[in-house]
Amino acid sequence: MTATTISEATRARFDREVAKYPPEQKRSAVMALLSIVQQEQGWVSPESERGVAEYLGLPTIAVHEVTTFYNMYNQRPVGKYKLNVCTNLPCKLRRGQQALEHLEKKLGIGVGDTTADGLFTLYPSECLGACADAPVMLVNDRTMCSFMEDDKLDQLIDGLRQVEGKTA
């Protein structure tokens, strides 16, 4: 996606976000534009970074630095359900690491991998800001799940597979 290959619908969404900032500060919309790209494509490719950079009049490296700094941007294709399990100290003390390991076994993948059916990608996460609900996880960067002991993890995975018409 370069500035010339951005669809009209995407360009309209970009325009709405950039309009929220003074013209001389349009670069402030970079995170919002990257989120739009990810919503539409599932990840932010190097080509998409170039498109955002061209649109905003920035060097590509300036956009790439944002993409690589924040873990909410997928730099490669991920499964339909991206699972981020908090392994920061408070969650770790309340079984966060065990939750991650349980999911590795249940899904048959390692950290950073995607299941063969393309449904799940698993990542550890830094603090998700819900320490009292540990262990916690974030699904698709949007839905917080609390108190994720093994039985709740199993219910979540099995339920998502059922919704997708797939079984383990």
Automatic annotation (TrEMBL):
Note accompanying the cofactor annotation: Binds 1 [2Fe-2S] cluster.
| Highest taxon above the source species | Bacteria
**What UniProt keywords apply to this chain's record, in alphabetical order?**
2Fe-2S, Iron, Iron-sulfur, Metal-binding
Q: Which cofactor does it need?
A: [2Fe-2S] cluster
Annotated [2Fe-2S] cluster binding lies at C86, C91, C127, C131
Q: Which InterPro entries match?
A: NuoE-like, NuoE_dom, NuoE_N, Thioredoxin-like_sf
Give the matching CDD domains: TRX_Fd_NuoE
Q: Which NCBIfam families match?
A: nuoE_fam, PRK07539.1-3
The family annotation for this protein states: Belongs to the complex I 24 kDa subunit family.
Q: Could you tell me what this protein is called?
A: NADH-quinone oxidoreductase subunit 2
Q: Which organism is it from?
A: Paracidovorax wautersii
**Gene designation per UniProt:** nqo2
